[in-house]
Design a protein that fits this description.
Length: about 425
């Protein structure tokens, strides 16, 4: 069978484009980008698959699921009419005081609706499903920051499914929704002005505490959508505050990342205080242990984020996995397809995406490859992308060619570190010697 996924190397040694440029310029650039892809925004919820949803899927036809979906739809219409009315009021020469009163009233009504119907007042949530944690898991802390349009109910479903998937307790930092359009506006402000909302500051406190806790050996941060922007802001702060050996305990995994950059600078691996009298270059590694990004090819939020910026040199650090498919919902469109749960709430050993064959430029084994958090001493530092290849028409069964079901072929699952965490597993950590 011809390969279905191609592995390529992204050059990350060059100077990045200035994402720290003028905030107004960045905001204008993002507005133009949103206008360009505005036609695809309804695709956030597609495909609906209403007859195939599980109880944890966002679009499951439960009372809370229907209430969340209907409320978001009404808020979208309400916000669109509100935004369109503002220039009309200016054109009609409505007094400024009346316009101000109108804006305050409209925003207050939107806030009250979101807080009482969608969000609730609890900022930090914890997974509530029963799991059998391993003894080593006591040394780990797992956090999740959700994306746009997620109320309290959907975030709880997200962390519960993550808990089933990886066999660990998950702490969720709720990025409260203000409705799809207002969430999108908030994303643009966060990207352009590095604006830290309350959930960003709360996430920073929790991650900082976990990394400084001497009993914790690993901190895992899972991000979705706008959560990628907020997680990126937190990481930028942590890079300024914490020593390298603590930062290296952090692992980051994103889905449908909406951020315009993701930092992971190179650091020297020589222990503090050690003097090197040799002429050789010291070993180096990335500050953060591991970063992986997962995206759908037809996900409009990924178009505005990770898929838009990943190919800019040194802009988006981490290995990128791109699945042929659409949709932006965390459970229904990402986890269900990439980490499919069986009826026993354990991840199946096989699914269409993870079984896709990978084309590499050289015949090297996974074991011989340096880990995403470790680098050799070459002058050119690179990152990797796994992107779908046009199908060749060969007969497939569950996404795999019937005549190519051997176990010697490199597949997506062989490159995914997150895959090794499924069902409570723990991958080995690469060490620099």
């Amino acid at each position: 069978m011809d390969p279905q996924i191609r592995l390529t190397r992204r050059n990350s040694s060059a100077t990045p484009l200035p994402y720290t440029a003028s905030p107004l310029c960045l905001l204008w650039s993002d507005i133009c980008l949103v206008v360009q892809y505005a036609w695809a925004l309804p695709g956030i919820f597609l495909p609906l698959q209403l007859g195939q949803t599980t109880p944890l899927d966002e679009l499951n036809l439960s009372f809370q699921g229907c209430l969340s979906l209907i409320t978001q739809a009404l808020l979208t219409v309400y916000q669109l009419l509100f935004l369109l009315s503002l220039p009309l009021m200016v054109i009609c020469l409505v007094p400024a005081l009346w316009i101000l009163l109108y804006i305050v009233t409209a925003l207050a009504l939107n806030y009250v609706t979101c807080m009482f119907v969608l969000n609730g007042f609890q900022r930090v949530l914890v997974s509530s499903v029963p799991i059998a944690e391993q003894p080593d898991h006591a040394k780990e802390r797992w956090f999740f920051i959700n994306g746009i349009a997620n109320g309290h109910y959907w975030v709880q479903d997200n962390i519960d499914q993550l808990s089933y998937t990886f066999g660990r307790k998950i702490t969720g930092i709720h990025n409260r929704t203000s409705g799809v359009l207002f969430d999108l506006v908030e994303c643009l402000i966060q990207r352009g002005f590095a604006y830290a909302t309350g959930d960003v500051r709360r996430a920073h406190v929790l991650l900082n505490e976990a990394l400084l806790d001497p009993s914790v050996e690993k901190v895992v941060l899972v991000l979705h959508s706008q959560g990628g922007i907020e997680g990126g802001l937190v990481i930028d702060w942590l890079l300024d505050e914490l020593p390298q050996h603590l930062l290296h305990q952090l692992e980051v995994y994103t889905f449908g990342n909406a951020a315009n950059h993701f930092n992971n600078p190179i650091c020297n691996c020589r222990p503090s205080g050690e003097v090197d009298n040799s002429d050789s270059h010291p070993p180096t590694r990335r500050s953060i242990g591991y970063i992986e990004h997962y995206a759908n090819t037809e996900d409009v939020v990924s178009w505005l984020g990770v898929l838009q910026f990943a190919n800019i040199p040194n802009r988006y650090l981490g290995r990128l996995f791109v699945r042929p498919g659409s949709g932006h919902m965390m459970n229904q469109h990402y986890l269900d397809n990439m980490f499919t749960l069986g009826s026993d709430k354990r991840v199946l050993d096989s699914n269409t995406f993870m079984d896709m064959k990978v084309e590499t430029k050289s015949n090297i084994s996974i074991e011989s490859r340096p880990g995403p958090g470790t680098l050799d001493n070459s002058d050119e530092q690179t990152e990797e992308t796994l992107f779908p290849i046009t199908k060749t028409g060969r007969p497939l069964r569950n996404g795999v060619a019937i005549d190519d079901l051997d176990h010697n072929t490199l597949r997506v699952k062989d490159f995914s570190r997150l895959w090794k965490y499924r069902n409570g597993g723990s991958p080995e950590r690469h060490k620099v010697v």
